[in-house]
Write a structure and sequence with these properties.
It contains 15 helices and 13 strands. It starts with 13 loop residues before the first helix and ends with a helix. Strand 9 and strand 10 form a beta hairpin. Helices cover about 40% and strands about 15% of the residues. The radius of gyration is 20 Å and the shape is globular. A seven-stranded mixed β-sheet has the order 2-8-7-6-5-3-4, with helices on both faces. A four-stranded antiparallel β-sheet has the order 9-10-13-12. The protein folds into two domains: about 110 residues, Alpha-Beta Complex (Aspartate Aminotransferase, domain 1), CATH 3.90.1150; about 220 residues, Aspartate Aminotransferase, domain 2 (3-Layer(aba) Sandwich). By secondary structure, the chain is of the alpha/beta class.
Length: about 375
């Protein structure tokens, strides 16, 4: 029997590889993007309470009504946009599921999809699984801004979709209003669709405006907008996210969603609905919370030989290690984990054609003691 892989070039993700290496080496794991501190105690208590009440069976396929209503209220508060919780909001098993389903809803054989490298590693495989072709546009250090003229030149009659991610993983770049307007113009001009990956939407720093595809009416009408409660509430293991899209697009999205996970973690949906209703200050305070961690981590690394690139959002810090080593970034990350017990992620793995640079990514969504211990090791290099 001959088996032909649909994704022949792919193996285990770099996140799994580096986390496994960190565990084997008993290293401080600043590679995979998850917090090492406790979730809100009231949220955890609500989860236990709803589970104890017996709310442990299938939720409605698009999500429980109270959560979808709270999502609609959150979008109204943050962006001034009214969405219909019944027809335009779908709860998903994490943002990655939502991205796969949205791509599947739009992409057919022969379609082209523009993505920006360094890109989250689920985009290209989902495009390939649906018979599409990812068209990679590289963003470059130090600021990783999008050149919209280059994007316009990459659009062909086969272009179906543009995928954007702001705040951007792994670079921390955040779209300006001019970026959103340029994207909206191209989508309308060329009759395209957009998937806006906004899982770090509440982590925008330095008092910059928090903007979303939700802010731009014409763009929102042609977009799937994806977000993550795992990121917002420090519970990545709950795998709970959502997708907002116009009713026609949501209908197509749900056709696929119902055969991927059907429904998502029921007691967690009730617990998060409670948090959004009663503890909305946690969402509002998320930017300040992570900005303090960004600034603290930067201060801890001030005496190191790393050069820190500016982080506008997310909970990731890029650093240039050129002054320390001539190793490529994959080899450097392995060396750093094995020899100095701090794990990071190489940036080159997020590119189709990696640039000639020595830049890696640290996650600073960690306790101060974790960041302090890591910095002590890093400052010795």
């Amino acid at each position: 029997m001959t088996f032909k892989s649909k994704l022949p070039q792919l193996g285990t993700t770099i996140f799994s590889q580096m986390s496994q290496l960190a565990t084997e080496q008993q290293a401080i794991n600043l590679s995979q993007g998850f917090p090492d501190f406790a979730a809100n105690a009231q949220l955890v208590a609500a989860l236990a309470d709803y589970s104890a009440q017996g709310l442990n069976q299938y939720a409605p396929m698009p999500g429980i009504a109270p959560l979808r209503e709270q999502i609609a209220a959150l979008i109204q508060r943050c962006y001034g946009r009214s969405v219909c919780p019944q027809q335009e909001v779908t709860v998903t098993s994490g943002a990655t599921e939502a991205l796969l389903v949205a791509i599947s809803a739009l992409v057919s054989v022969g379609d082209e999809v523009i993505i920006f490298d360094p890109a989250y590693d689920s985009y290209a495989p989902a495009i390939a699984l649906n018979g599409g072709t990812a068209v990679h546009i590289a963003l470059h250090a130090p600021d990783y801004r999008v050149n919209w003229q280059q994007v316009a030149a990459a659009i062909t009659p086969r272009t179906k979709l543009i995928i954007v991610n702001s705040p951007h993983n792994p670079t921390g770049m955040v779209f300006s209003q001019a970026d959103w307007l340029a994207l909206q113009q191209l989508v309308l001009q060329h009759n395209l669709y957009c998937i806006s990956d906004e899982v770090y939407e509440h982590m925008v720093f330095d008092d910059a405006p928090k903007l979303s595809a939700n802010n731009f009416t014409a763009l929102a009408q042609r977009s799937f907008i994806v977000s993550s409660f795992g990121k917002t509430f420090h519970v990545t293991g709950w795998k709970l996210g959502y997708c907002v899209a116009p009713a026609e697009l949501s209908s197509e999205f749900r056709k696929i969603h119902q055969y991927v996970t059907f429904s998502s973690f029921t007691p967690a949906q009730y617990a998060i609905a409670d948090m959004l209703a009663k503890q909305s200050a946690q969402v509002q305070g998320l930017a300040d919370f992570y900005q303090q961690k960004r600034d603290s981590f930067a201060a801890l690394l001030a005496s190191s030989r790393f050069r820190l690139l500016h982080c506008q959002g997310t909970y990731f810090q890029l650093v240039d290690y050129s002054a320390i080593s001539a190793l490529d970034d994959v080899a450097f990350c392995r060396w750093l984990t094995i020899e100095h017990k701090v794990a990071a992620i190489p940036l080159s793995v997020f590119y189709q054609t990696p640039p000639h640079s020595r830049i890696i990514r640290f996650c600073f969504a960690k306790q101060h003691s974790t960041l302090q211990a890591a910095a002590e090791a890093l400052c010795q290099l």
